[in-house]
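re: the backbone from monday

yeah here it is again, tokenized this time
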């Protein structure tokens, strides 16, 4: 029987590419969610006929409710953050795919795992802000955490041999370097929003594209890898692979290295998370080795790109430090996209909040949200 999928964040970049995969595999969509893009969501509802939808923005939910009124077979509409968590808990789907952007996805990730649903996780902030809570929820329920980020999917794919996985000694986490690779601080001072949104390889949403430009995305992925694969941060090396063909690699006790390669197309890791443990034909093109002339490698410059340095500090501090870094970054990126702060201010503010407190110790979900609020307030009060 075809799998049933609940897709959270269906109108974003990962969400729309996930629907490409779902369409190609003939899977059933059990439920969809969006924040405010109701026009696109209506088209998705018409094609995939979900039983439930959730819209987290109240005004957008009212708009969708009016559009669905009187339609035969219209899905049941849920609203707000509570509706998103309710959707993630519902019995029915085989997999919940969470592609919500930011800490807004944490509650839904926990809800899905606590309900025993396998979770295809594209919302890296769930592990960054609440890694202990998320991994404990998965362990308690027995649900599977299936990484969707291309780098973590690559690592996951390289570790499918259980015996080899036991001999894992190092992770080589690859980075494209973003649009500003090789530039120094003085060159970055005048970079604009338009400059930062020109990613050389990937088609992503605005927030993640800015995170790639600052290397914050790679810092968040390092933190995510610590939680997913159980290695300390010093055993995770970030390698710049400009062509985004090698998506990540692992090294074993005998110093053998296994890598996963493919075109820079997010539908490959999305599909593996949804079809796991099977590999099936899909919509992504194959890698043409005849046309592949060069693969280059370099070192990530954390002296210039302070977001990466801040994330390394945060995971070493532990506790809520990664949550603080993430909250500060989300707020700073929003300000940058509104042209209220400069590009370099993002890294300065993220590092400053990590340095502002010890952050260690155990925490609850309420503590996570309180720390996130503190970090955002810190950014607003310390921005230039």
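seq for it, each position gets an aa:
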């Amino acid at each position: 029987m075809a799998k049933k999928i609940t897709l959270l964040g269906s109108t974003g970049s990962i969400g729309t590419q996930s629907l490409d995969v779902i369409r190609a595999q003939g899977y059933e969509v059990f439920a969809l969610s969006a924040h405010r893009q109701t026009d696109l969501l209506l088209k998705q509802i018409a094609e995939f006929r979900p039983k439930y939808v959730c819209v987290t923005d109240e005004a957008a939910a009212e708009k969708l409710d009016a559009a669905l009124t009187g339609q035969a077979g219209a899905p049941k509409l849920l609203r707000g953050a509570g509706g998103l968590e309710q959707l993630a808990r519902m019995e029915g789907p085989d997999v919940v795919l969470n592609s919500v952007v930011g800490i807004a996805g944490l509650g839904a990730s926990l809800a899905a795992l606590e309900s025993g649903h396998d979770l295809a996780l594209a919302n890296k902030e769930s592990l960054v802000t609440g890694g202990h809570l998320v991994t404990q929820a998965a362990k308690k329920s027995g649900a599977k955490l299936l990484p969707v980020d291309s780098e973590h999917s690559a690592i996951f794919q390289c570790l499918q041999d259980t015996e080899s996985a036991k001999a894992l000694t190092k992770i080589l986490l690859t980075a494209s370097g973003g649009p500003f690779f090789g530039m120094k601080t003085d060159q970055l001072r005048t970079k604009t929003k338009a400059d930062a949104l020109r990613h050389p390889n990937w088609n992503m949403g605005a927030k993640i594209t800015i995170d790639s430009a600052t290397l914050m995305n790679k810092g968040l992925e390092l933190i995510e890898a610590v939680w997913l694969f159980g290695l300390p941060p010093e055993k995770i090396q970030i390698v710049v692979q400009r062509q985004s063909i090698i998506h990540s690699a692992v090294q074993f006790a005998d110093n053998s290295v296994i890598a996963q390669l493919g075109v820079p197309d997010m539908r490959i890791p999305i599909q593996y998370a949804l079809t796991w443990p099977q590999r099936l034909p899909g919509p992504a093109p194959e890698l043409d080795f005849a046309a592949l002339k060069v693969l280059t490698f370099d070192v990530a410059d954390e002296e210039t790109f302070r977001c990466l340095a801040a994330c390394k500090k945060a995971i070493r501090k532990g506790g809520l430090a990664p949550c603080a870094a993430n909250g500060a970054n989300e707020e700073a990126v929003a300000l940058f996209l509104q042209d209220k702060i400069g590009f370099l201010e993002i890294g300065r503010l993220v590092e400053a909040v990590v340095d502002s407190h010890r952050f260690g110790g155990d925490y609850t979900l309420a503590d996570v949200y309180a720390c996130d609020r503190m970090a955002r307030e810190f950014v607003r009060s310390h921005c230039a």
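The chain has two domains: 4-148, 161-264+291-382. Residues 365-382 form the longest helix (18 residues).
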